[in-house]
Hints:
The protein is mainly beta. The protein is 6% helix and 51% strand. The protein has 2 helices and 15 strands. It has helices at 160-172, 211-214; strands at 43-54, 59-72, 76-89, 94-106, 111-120, 123-135, 138-145, 149-153, 177-178, 181-182, 192-202, 218-227, 237-244, 249-255, 259-270. The chain has a 15-stranded antiparallel β-sheet that branches. A hairpin with a 3-residue loop joins strand 2 and strand 3. The chain is globular, with a radius of gyration of 18 Å. It starts with 42 loop residues before the first strand and ends in a 7-residue tail after the last strand. Mean pLDDT is 86; it is low at 5-35.
Amino acid sequence: MKPSIRCAAMARPGRALLAAALLALPGMGSPAWAEAPVALAPHRAVYDLTLAAVTGGDTISASGTMTYAVSDACSAWSTQQQLKLQTVSRSGAVTEMVSDYATLEAKDGHNLVFQTVQTANGHPASRVMGEATMTPTGGEIRYTQPRAHTVSLPAGVLFPMAHTRAIISAGEQGQASLAPSLFDGTGDDGAQDTYIMILGWNRPPSASPFPALARLPSGRVHVAFYTASSHDMRPDYEIGMRYFANGVSDDLDMDFGDFRMHGTLHSFTPAPEGHRC
């Protein structure tokens, strides 16, 4: 699984944050790329983040880490992600941003419980919490934070794990692109449009220091995120990564607006087999 696509970009001003995602739901009009079964792997991954480029703005230095864990809760996927990012401005000011993101996503794609909490230099910066539901004709998000309100979801919106699953399924079927809508619980304004380019899907072995990943097919993926209600052709943010067939990602390229960071998979630990569901 990839880290939540928007969570990684959340450290930039406004609603920027990196992504993660659904096995096709019977009767929901899912496209062909969502119908092939994809076996996602429960695991824990830690990424080292280093500055790749400065593209303008006030930031001159950045470093950080990201930890992502996914557990199989039988009828649902439980995920936790923590992004720690330190930036230095031209004036020498240091900012420590921490973003904690957690979800519980039903495997049938009908329900998502989510929480995103961000702090800056130890002080609360933002909090997004709530629950989303989907049906064959659409759904809704019931936010409890930052304020209680409800947002409608159009039919076909995917939650994060389903979004990852659709990308891998499309890659395995040889598709070059797809454009599903995504709601991941990182913002309080509903779903986003995504455009995904799959830059080849390669047979194993894959170049990886982790044997469990090296024996899997993999492919390079680029994801752009757009505000659903906007007609602006420019994406709100973008991320690139290599995906393995089990949903694990590495070789991250994260766009934070005025700077970009590279994410290297520092450690990968498959989850031990627990009780049978």
